[in-house]
Amino acid sequence: MTNRAGLPVAVCALLLLLCGCAHAQTLGAPNIVLLVTDDQGYGDLSVTGHPTIRTPNIDRLANEGTRFTQFLAGNQVCTPSRAALLTGRLPVRSGMTGTIRGNVYSPALPTGLPHDETTIAEALKAAGTPYATAMVGKWHLGINRENNTDGWYLPTSHGFDSWYGTPMSNGNYCGTATENKPESWEKCFMMRDANVVQQPVVINTIPNRLQDEAFRFLRDNAGVRPFFLYYAFLQPHRPLFASPERVGVSRRGAYGDAVEDVDYAVGQLVDLLGELGQLDNTLIVYTSDNGGWLEVEEEGGSNGPLRGGKGQDYEGGVRVPGIVWGPGLGVQAQVSQAIVSAFDVLPTILDYAGVAFPPPSATNLTFDGRSVRPILEGAEDDAVTADSRVIFHYCGYNLRAMRYGPWKAHFKTPRITNEVENTCTEFAGESINACMCLDVANYQHDPPLLYNLDVDLKERLAIDTATNPEAAAALAYILQARAAHEAELVPGATQVDRLPVPELQPCCNPPTCRCEEF
Asked: Which residues, at least 6 apart from 473, have a Cβ–Cβ distance to it below 8 Å?
């Protein structure tokens, strides 16, 4: 058989396959893009009501996909939250948390995400067509173990084919957007895989560099094999920065510039997926690692109508933007009130990728999430969020709160310094910039404080269970669930409450620790 040009149909088919039409999706397995911001509050998007921050591209994902109004982060601060997101497990199980010395990583710790944990990237390698996997941006789950170049805990040791970004929050070390702190510039650096490529780095150059790296990965793999891109923005964590061309554009000031810079990158990414012919077969997940940071005042975000923020287990610390987009994969355009958590991201992604859950490499592990695909595709909430579901909120190794349907029980609450702003700025006569996990820094509640979030979103009106039978029954269930949880829980040894080892500090061109990628 020939076509109108006289060419055999079989030859035409071969030409179509080889002609570079990689822009057309030819693979059945869906692509996955996971977008995670840093310290972005629940109320920091136009679609969630912010009056002066413009986020048209993120709003598009929300309006064309499923926006969850009750999406809960895996923890209230960076390191444990990111571990929870990538593994689907409570950080207390993996030891990716701490109580005494702190709850996030510094560059010279000799520990990190244990190798017996299974990340989303590792699980996707078990798909029928193994995924191409890449990460750009902030890691914050450990660097080295034996020496300052082994990269034992970096993304390329956890299922990612490549990584380009920073291993921690540059905000701790990098001064301002354009000028580094002289006393700590050696700790402000960019890495590619396990190699330091720029030290120090000027952080306002980072957004465009991450975008270029991410887009290169998408172009290289579109139509060749399914891909998983984990894009972890450093914004809007302080110090506040944005690409130079987007500085001074937001009415919200520098914080708004940072959020709108993220929005611009999201729009460019979606446009590129369209150019590559990948939109119909791509699932995009957008969220934040924890709530907005209230103690840094105008340099922090808005948690909208919620009480509290980063470092707290009030809703403002753990309820974050949660959007899933994928019209071509059956994801419905809807606003869902289902209670969904970061623990659900791994099983949901594996469900779409056709990978068994638990993944084959982790059948001995206990997971804390479930696939919410039925909700995304229009099922009633209780088809997935069963009446018995309980979500645990830990600070370090302290179980501070539990969520069960509309009910929230607080066993411990932070010693708030400013009740109006709900912030922790002082403890034991010392200045602090976030609430702490230590028992002495928290009030103990026995019986726990119980709130109905459906009617008391601010968590201000503790319920007297002696006069409310429904609340009493809910609290009884919560206490039973706590006992069962504590009976089965095997806490992992802390990977965060450790002393730094100076010799593990990454350094290019020792002893100067200076290098320039460009």
From this structure: none
Whether residue 8 has pLDDT greater than 80: no
How many whole angstroms separate alpha carbon 343 and alpha carbon 367? 8
* Overall average pLDDT of the 201-221 stretch: 95
> Which parts of 75-128 fold into alpha helices (H)?
78-87, 91-94, 120-124
Mean pLDDT across the chain, nearest whole number?
91
Which neighbouring-strand residues pair with 385?
A: none
Strand pairing class (282-288; 227-232): unpaired
For 251-277, the three-class secondary structure string (H helix, E strand, C coil) is CCCHHHHHHHHHHHHHHHHHHHHHHCC
Instruction: Give me the domain span that covers residue 460.
Output: 392-488
Whether residue 367 sits in one domain with residue 241: yes
Q: In terms of Cα–Cα distance, which of 103, 110, 99, 101 is closest to 80?
A: 103
Query: Is residue 425 within 8 Å of 418, Cβ to Cβ?
Result: yes
Q: pLDDT tier at 104 (50, 70, 90 boundaries)?
A: confident
Query: Are 396 and 266 within one domain?
Result: no
11 domain-assigned: no
Catalytic machinery residues: 78, 140
Q: What percent of the chain has pLDDT over 70?
A: 91
What does the block give as tokens for 129?
């067509």
CB 410 within 8 A of CB 448: yes
Distance CA 257, CA 53 (A): 8
Mean pLDDT across 234-256: 94
CA 77-46-291 angle, 5° bins? 10
User: Token digits for 390?
Assistant: 């309980």
Instruction: Specify the CATH number for the domain of residue 367.
Output: 3.40.720.10
